[in-house]
Design brief:
alpha+beta; 2 domains; 4 helices; about 25% strand; globular
């Protein structure tokens, strides 16, 4: 079981109340511009967006700007769920856990490495880290 820290809960609450999402539809393309509030000591710039009445089978591509370091998505209920992570050092964090696994290859270290690597959005760097875990 996992419990969030008070800091993460506070940030989540701030994001929930003050994130703005601009939507534009051009042809078959839905573009979302998401502005997450930033404060001096915030560390967890991550949110989840739920889109209803659509499934992954109807989506050709999901992409993001370079500000987004981690992204995952899946069908959820009668829609899809998109997890967005904007932490600056997410790639370095994932790399740290891959290196830890390489130094001490056990199941626990591999699970930790996979958890953090799978948080990264699709990229060459993510694929390279996954290859190191095979």
């Amino acid at each position: 079981m996992w419990f969030t820290s008070l800091e993460e809960y506070y940030e989540y609450s701030e994001y929930r109340l003050n994130t703005t999402i601009e939507k534009s539809l051009i042809g078959d393309t839905l573009k979302l511009t998401v502005s997450i509030p930033s404060r001096q000591y915030f560390y967890y710039p991550s949110i989840t967006i739920n889109l209803t009445n659509i499934s992954m089978s109807e989506i050709e591509e999901i992409s993001s700007s370079d500000i987004v370091s981690g992204m995952s998505y899946a069908d959820f209920g009668n829609g899809i769920m998109i997890n967005i992570d904007c932490r600056k050092h997410l790639l370095e964090h994932a790399t740290y856990f891959v290196e830890k696994y390489e130094k001490s290859p056990n199941a626990s270290n591999r699970d930790d490495a996979l958890y953090f690597v799978n948080r990264l959005k699709p990229s060459y760097a993510k694929q390279a880290l996954l290859q190191r875990l095979k």
